[in-house]
Amino acid sequence: MLLNAPPTARNMLIPTSGVRPSGKLKTxxxxxxIDLRSDTVTKPTPGMREAMxxxxxxxxxxxIDPTVVELQEHIAGxxxxxxxxxxxxxxxxxxxALRVHCTPGDEFICEAGCHIYNYExxxxxxxxxxxxxxxxxxxxxxxxxxxxGSVRPDNEHTVRTRLLCLENTHNRGAGKIYSLSRIQALxxxxxxxxxxxxxxxxxxxxxxxxxxxxxxxYSEPFESVSVCFxxxxxxxxxxxxxxxxxxxxxxRRARKLFGGGMRQIGILAAGALYALKHQMERLVVDHxxxxxxxxxxxxxxxxxxxxxxxxxxxVIFHVANEWGTAxxxxxxxxxxxxxxxxxxxxxxxxxxxxxxCRNQIENACEAIISVAQTPAN
Length: 377
What we know:
This protein is 38% helix and 17% strand. By secondary structure, it is an alpha/beta fold. It has two domains: 7-43 and 281-372, Aspartate Aminotransferase, domain 1; 47-278, Type I PLP-dependent aspartate aminotransferase-like (Major domain) (Aspartate Aminotransferase, domain 2, 3-Layer(aba) Sandwich). It starts with 6 loop residues before the first helix and ends in a 5-residue tail after the last helix.
C-alpha cells in the first residue's frame, strides 16, 4: 500500500459497474503487467461486448445504420450541435474539419504541442494543402495575449489565416484543461478576427467530468468539435465530428474521399453508445488514480512534475539527467511490471484508465519509487 497517499484518493470508493476488477496482462514468467502507456489500451467490458453483439446494423454508406444514427444524434445532443458524423479515428475527424473549414493555401493557428500538428503526419498539408501557424502555450494552453496580432494581413503575398484550433484536454500538456472562460475569450477573439474555430476534444469527456462543466458549454464557442470514444471512455474504436447540418453534410463527402465510409458499423457505434451511457462518470476514478501516481513521483528527488496535481488522467514527469534517460526509466519500470511511454529524451508519460484498479495503481506507485531510488547504470 502506498504510504502518505492523499486522503481523498486513498479513501475513495471505486464504482464497479461496467469495470473489470483487473486490467493486468500476464507475461511468460507470469508477471502481472500494469499497462499505463495510454488510455487507448482498454478492452471492451462484458456489458459493452454484449451491446455490440446485439446491435442493429445497416449499410451506413448506401443507406443508414440505425445504431450509428442513434450515436450521432446522441452525441450531437450532448455537444449542443445540429448534427454529428461517426468516423474511424480522431485524426480523420480533425483533418476533415480542417479540410471543410479551409481551402488550399489557408492557414490555421494551433498550439505548438497539439495533436493535430504533431501526431497526424502533417495531413493538413499532405491532404488539404493547408499551413499551420504554431504558438507555444503553457502546458499546452494558449493565452489571449499570445494570439493578438497573429492573423495575417489580407493581401496577395500571404496565406489567409482562416481557423483557430484548440485541444481540450491537452495530451502533451499532461491532460491540462482549458477553463471555460479562457475558451470563450479565445473563441470570441477568433470570431471578431473573422476566424472559424475547431475543438480537438479527444478527451473532452475527461474535462467535463473533472470540472462539472457540461459538454455543451465547452462546445458552444466552436463551429466544430471532435470527440473520441476509444480513450477514456474505453470503446474499441471511433470518433465523432459535430457541427451544423451543412458542415456535417460536407464532412460526409470528405469522409468518403478519405476512405472513411463504412458499412455495418453499428457494431462499433454500439460500443461508443454504451461507453457514453455507462462509462463516462467513472472517469473521476482515473483522475484520482493519476493523482496517486503524481504523489509518488513527487516523493522522488530524481523526478519532477510540471504540475503536482494532474487535472485529469495523464501524468508526465521529467527524469533528471543524473538518473538516466526516459527510455531507461521506462525500461526499469517494465522490469517491475509497469508499462509506460517515453515521451521525450527525459520525459515519461503515464495514463490511467478503466482497466487498472486502485491496487494496481498503488503497486505502480511503489514501482516508480523503487526505480527512482536506483539510478540507471
